[in-house]
Amino acid sequence: QLRGAVALDGPSGTGKSTVSRRLAIALGATYLDTGAMYRAATLAVLRAGVDPGAAEEATAVVAAARMTMGTDPRLPGVGLDGEDVAEEIRGAEVTGAVSAVSAVGEIRELLVQRQRELVRQALAEPGGVVVEGRDIGTVVLPDAGLKVYLTASADARAQRRTEQDVAEGRTGDLASTRASVQRRDALDSGRAVAPLRAAGDALELDTTELGIDQVVTRLQDLAAERD
Ligand code: C5P
């Protein structure tokens, strides 16, 4: 069992990223944002002018792309071919195309392999690693020492995503964000390969009525029980 690994999965807008980073800081752990990897892969595909749904071409682009993932929870940088793309991967263009790219099985294989390698490196250090995504508990790290699946009502998720967009300087409109979040979740849950779902042995935590601090405290308690 990978005792030092925490797997945090769930749909968008559950507070997953904020919570994962805060938990990693509290535990003195490193942090891996696998969504950022699918986003960087999508940016590479878009930049190459390849249709995100063209599996074979898109896979070739991702295989050739030089992706660097920072694992410091305070400043997790994302690089693509030597360029800092942390902001660009959050934009509407990448967000609109990422579910198509992440549905390609060969691309998932490439990225899952890199994710496991990054986790292996992280676990060589004390403190452990917090990994967030959609398929961490089910596919990437089925042996993680702690698996949590975060949920929240559709309203709460749309509201949080909109607030986050506004806070980070992107346009935030509740109705269109709600539609975009729902569309992405439907695609991620409905795909054939590694669909979004809770692992059988994951703890489900509904964050609709909880503040970030409460969620982080709850996860710290769970991590302490594990130790
Ligand atoms: O977490 P984030 O919203 O940044 O993820 C972006 C997209 O990447 C998701 O909508 C999903 O399509 C894909 N993803 C995935 N598997 C993961 C993490 C993200 O398919 N482990």
Automatic annotation (TrEMBL):
Catalytic activity line of the entry: CMP + ATP = CDP + ADP; dCMP + ATP = dCDP + ADP
Disordered: region residues: 159-181
GO molecular function: ATP binding; dCMP kinase activity
Keyword ATP-binding: yes
Top-level EC class as recorded in UniProt: transferase
Pfam families assigned: Cytidylate_kin
Biological processes, Gene Ontology terms: pyrimidine nucleotide metabolic process
Coiled coil: none
Main location group: cytoplasm
UniProt EC number: 2.7.4.25
Domain Cytidylate kinase, first and last residues per copy: 6-222
Alphabetized UniProt keyword annotations: ATP-binding, Cytoplasm, Kinase, Nucleotide-binding, Transferase
GO cellular component terms listed in the entry, alphabetical order: cytoplasm
Biased composition (Basic and acidic residues): 159-171
Residues holding ATP: 10-18
Gene3D superfamilies in alphabetical order: P-loop containing nucleotide triphosphate hydrolases
Cellular localization per UniProt: Cytoplasm
SUPFAM superfamilies: P-loop containing nucleoside triphosphate hydrolases (SSF52540)
Family listed: Belongs to the cytidylate kinase family. Type 1 subfamily.
NCBIfam families the UniProt entry points to: cmk (TIGR00017)
Protein name: Cytidylate kinase
Organism whose genome encodes this protein: Saccharopolyspora montiporae
Gene, per the UniProt record: cmk
